């Protein structure tokens, strides 16, 4: 155990001391962001400023206290000596809590061969425009998906439209361009999602933001999900109620999306 960072201090154990009345413990009252560190925090692919802005925006929206940002940065710098992936959470009173983890051992395999996903009907994130500590619905969906021998879960709304996966944003290839669910569908405005849309449009590539209803998802040639840690992961199989949908994990559009990610990060 290499430790974690909490409220201005490096902690070299695997427990944290919280009051039994702490709202973070009682209600999941924290906001957080998860980043992959590419060599150092200020590397363009790490998106340090974007992750900090995500936290600042949510804290302002909720009327919570901003952390000591220099202290938080110091903690993040310390954590990058030990971990390639950081989860930075902030409590309502401004306390910062930074944990770390390794990249998934099978990440290259997932990026190359793709994964299976399961449609988790009726499960959607709380306060979807923000990353809060109340992540019960995605966690439950992912646990259920794994029991179905799938590696991801797809969250839906009451109409059955696909929204996002338990950990990332959805992308689909059809009619020669990419499609993604719109923010109006109440999904997380993922940092990588936003950057990919900007990069695609900069390269004069069309991106359609439209609800992913049953009629649309059946006609995609390829689908993938993205987040700041795993980058671009193809989905080759989707298990839906009574239906199995198959997609091409090696579709050239997916490789183009991945190439664009690294091209713009250099």
Give an overview of the whole structure.
The structure is a single chain. The chain has two domains: 4-101, D-amino Acid Aminotransferase, Chain A, domain 1; 107-265, D-amino Acid Aminotransferase, subunit A, domain 2 (D-amino Acid Aminotransferase, Chain A, domain 2), CATH 3.20.10. By secondary structure, the chain is of the alpha+beta class. It is built from eight helices and 14 strands.
Features:
14 strands; 9-stranded mixed β-sheet; lyase activity; D-amino Acid Aminotransferase, Chain A, domain 2; 27% strand; BCAT-like_N; lyase; D-amino Acid Aminotransferase, Chain A, domain 1; alpha+beta; Aminotransferase-like; 266 residues; single chain; 5-stranded antiparallel β-sheet; 4-amino-4-deoxychorismate lyase
Q: How is the CATH topology of the largest domain named?
A: D-amino Acid Aminotransferase, Chain A, domain 2
Enumerate the spans where pLDDT stays under 50 for 5 or more consecutive residues.
none
Based on CA atoms alone, the radius of gyration comes out at 19 Å
What is the name of the CATH architecture of the largest domain? Alpha-Beta Barrel
Q: Give the overall silhouette.
A: globular
Q: Please name the fourth-level CATH homologous superfamily of the largest domain.
A: D-amino Acid Aminotransferase, subunit A, domain 2
* Helical/strand content category: alpha+beta
The number of distinct β-strands equals 14
β-strand amount: 25-35%
CATH class of the largest domain: Alpha Beta
Mean pLDDT: 94
The helix fraction, in percent, is 25-40%
Instruction: Write the element-wise H/E pattern from the N-terminal end onward.
Output: EEHEHHEEHEHEEEEHEHEEEH
How many separate structural domains?
2
How many alpha or pi helices? 8
Cα-to-Cα separation, first versus last residue: 33 Å
Largest sheet: 9 strands, mixed
InterPro entries: Aminotrans_IV, Aminotransferase-like, BCAT-like_C, BCAT-like_N, Class-IV_PLP-Dep_Aminotrnsfr
GO molecular function: lyase activity
Protein name: 4-amino-4-deoxychorismate lyase
Family: Belongs to the class-IV pyridoxal-phosphate-dependent aminotransferase family.
